[in-house]
Amino acid sequence: MSGFVHLHNHSDYSLLDGACRIGDYVKKASRLGMQHLGLTDHGNLFGALYFEQECHKAGINPVVGCEVYIANGSRFERSSKLPRSYHMVLYARNVEGYKNLMILSSKSYTEGFYYKPRIDDELLEKYHGGLMASTACLSGEIPKAILDEDWNKARNKSVYYSELFGEDNFYLEIMNHGILEEKTVRTGMRKISKETGIPIIATNDIHFLEREHANAHDVLICISTGKKRSDEKRLKTENPEFYFKSEEEMRRLFPDFQDAIENTVKLAMRCDLTIPRLEHRLPSYEIPKSFANSQSYLRHLTLEGLNKRYHEVDVEQRKSIHKRAEFELSVLSDMSYVDYFLIVWDFIDWACRHGIPVGPGRGSGAGSLVAYALRITDIDPLKYDLLFERFLNPERVNMPDFDIDFCYERRNEVIEYVHEKYGHENVAGICSFGTLRTKAVLKDVARVLDIPFSESNAITKLVPEGKIFDGREIDMKLALEMEPRLKEFYKKGGVYKELFEVAEILEGMNRHVSTHACGKVIGRGPLTDYVPLIKDQKTGDVITAYTMDVIETCGLVKMDFLGLKTLTLLKNCETLIRKLNPKFDIDKLPEDDAATFKMLGDGKSEAVFQFESQGMQKVLRDAKPMNIEELIALNALYRPGPMQYIPKYIESKYNRRKIQYPHPDLKEILQQTYGVIIYQEQVMKVAQTIGGFSLGKADILRQAMGKKKEKEMARMEREFIEGAENKGYDSKLAKDIYDMLKPFAGYGFNKSHAAAYSVIAYKTAFCKANHPAEFWAANLTNEINSTDALREYLAYAKNEGVKILPPDINLSEKYFTVDEGRIIYGLTGIKGMGQGAAEAITEARKFKGDFTGFLDFLKKVDLKALNRKVLEISLQAGLFDNIEQKNRATLLHNLDRALDISCRRKNDEASGQISLFTESETAIEFQWEEVDGWTESHLLRLEKEHLGLYVSGHPLDPYRSVWEKTTNMSIQEIKFCTNKKTHSVLGILKSVRTVLTHKGDNIAFAILEDFDNTVELAVFNKAYRKFGHLLTEGNIVLIRGKVDLSRGNPQIRVDEILEPRTLTKTQQRGNKALMSSKKGINKMRGEAEAVTFRIHIELVDAAHSEKELITLRTLLQDKNGSGQLYLHVSENGAKSVVKASNRFSFAVDDIDDIRKHHSVAAVWKETL
Q1: What is the DSSP letter of 206?
Q2: Tell me, what DSSP letter sits at residue 378?
Q3: CA-CA 20 to 30 A from 1056: which of 759, 905, 1063, 1083?
């Protein structure tokens, strides 16, 4: 049995200070034979619950503590003149002490935070019960007094705390890290101990696990302080003694204090804490007095809701509906979740009554009929065959979990309502931790070690993304195994070897604490009865100090209040459509709209919720969904795992004779998905039908299969086969079906969630298909702060024939609007035009009429809301073009004088002075100084600067013919091309950045922008030496280079840069080289008219023999016109896009003929 205990230890929850994980502390303590272990992180209890759990698993007694900061005075005082806070270590002896520790820690954040979370003596006097304490490190109050030779203070404070905490509950703490001041403190502590009888403990202030981790800890401190290791004036922590030492090492450090070593065990043995695990403690919902209890009130609300939802059903259907509702109500009552449902119903009902859009459902909650009756969800579980047991299993205690989507702009109103209703002390957010993940820790450590950014960036880009095939997440060790180029850096030795070694030690440690994006907890009483709290210093929000994965064990139920931008989009879209059709209701759309499904079947799903990706567009073109059920299936299938079954699903849809059911009894379950198991609910129903499982037991089976719990799966397999035999099924058939379920249980998706989100998707698709101008205007408003999204959506809208009007001072509203099918640019879409300025303009126009000119504008608008910069931006962006004969340059040149006169006139009016001029005379009075107008290129540059995109034209417009002749794809199409192949693109250079490598070579990175999109360029030394002089922002250039798709976002590694004036000389050479990838097709010639549409033909993989291409070419002959042809080619899994060199025209019949060709996988048309 060990005669020493480490009591003063800091884990990585002492953020960017402690350099050791809790689990590693526990393992080492166990290895060294220690029966007790302490955790005392700086000012918080983040790791307390996890520490207690890990200690109990290892058979170690946990000593849960905290190194608190004690204010030098009142915790409420905040002044830079105050002396720094003192340190003190507190330990929880029992549950009472743990609760007081939670209160103290919480109040240090909510009441005492000033640079650090602080408590004071007043709080200690109130909440000291069940606690033990020690004097801490050199920053403790008593050690400081000893170092200041203030013996009276040192002795008196020691006696004060000893009397406060009680006999044997307060200890004098000594340390020996080789620091001179510690020796003085040790001598002083012995003196005080002899005089007062207060015992001494010896500790080591552990911050890292092993002695050799000292360097990693020093680097961690540099990360925390933002310094480099080479900085002379930085905080240095190179002392290697703050590691986890053995008892023998500690005894050698304190030869004259062996009693202090043994006292650590005495202190630890007095701590007997098991943190209570509680059943959920939701508040009791306050029901109307006319109801006996919450169960009767929920039943009343349910029946009332069912009558509204199903008022047209017949008697038999009504009986069936009520039977299921009564079953759900009984489960909710038995599991004590009635109040949970009422609480959720209440805040959703409040949101709906206040016009806040609420989602139709999310997750498994849509499977509840009671939730549907209460309008918690808006998806009919009977219509879509959704299961309550998938949401709440009566055969296993699991917490209900409604994830609720709200309009993201008004979500906080609902959260504030909940705070007000249940009390601010009873409601809080949930904390989460950002960690030093592989790429992040490499970048952080590289910066500290002075490795150039270009090199650290190159290193981190070599780290593979995501997870490998067996689900193991990429970490440092695995990355080095998988990527030889990373290993080459490591083998260089020196600072590179150190980079990987330090990064591997720090990898995965906590970096910062933040607020979970949507999680909230509601307690039956003050939350400090259950968990410690902290305050988010950025937002002021109070949040739990425990993360969402452990708060349920403390008796709290998590509720997710999510903000979904698509709900905001649909609300804005509905508002715009109602200007033409006041009866339009986004929640009452026909579910069989032909235009909607035609658009989806054509793959035109850009900006359609959940269906916008390029891959999903391909699936839509192949599957051609005809109803919402098929949308649900595709939504569920288009995910890693089940994606492999998409071809089978599509093939079975079009050739139903190929569908084979394992048994006729499964046809009813599988026929809607053409024989393919897609949903978890189907797995459950198969287990019920064949194995005789209840749905609750079937859900347990689904989870066991999904999580590959081998023992549980083996046991349930026997039960499944036995149940099947009891129902008359053959045991071999039962075994085959059970084996069939295994992979699908892992891949299968929750139909309830897919159904809810597919309904939202259908609504967005309906708006796009039937009201495109309103749809795109709403999207533009939704993304008004994202330049990239605005540019992309404006391009989509233009491609669909929607006209975009530039901002206009008399037409533009605060956001994007629609007038006669045209989108009018919104004022807040202009960079630098804030909400207040936009509102001032629209308010002035509303109450004083349209503006007749710039001077009239200055007269009518409240100039306090529009500073000079806003006025300058407005002029440069062309807001006054339609009401002013003066050019923009003249208006800007005269701005200061016009503004001065207008301000003086308004001041005169405000002071009651009468102007000598009438309104018309004022205009005459102003003498304009005329200047030459700006060039078109300058106007476009300003438009780009202030709108984030070009509206009235594009700098590349003069080069369209050159672009068509010399490039083989647009930037948008690069993501589909073959990796490492050479391609040619034309555009404008942006964000040019030159970097000097450690070898002294110049390389450059830049962004190339064409009509619609951007791509990153990498210009390495060879190309830089030849073409570096052309790398100027704003230059229009033709780029030739190899496309690198290995890092997610495409990058072109530049081989050649050409200017427009040289393009004609290189055009044919480049075109021939780039178009020769397929015989026959590239030989088509002929000068073409302007492109008005594009035809895309996707070839079946490996269907590219010359013979097959010749037969395809025959279909394309004599089709000259204005369409650009693109061939999408797959070779050995790699994809590329080849653009034909001439133009074509296709009739509908022609496209159908091409689609039927056996080498063609898909054909689609893109109108420009």
Answers
A1: B
A2: -
A3: 1083
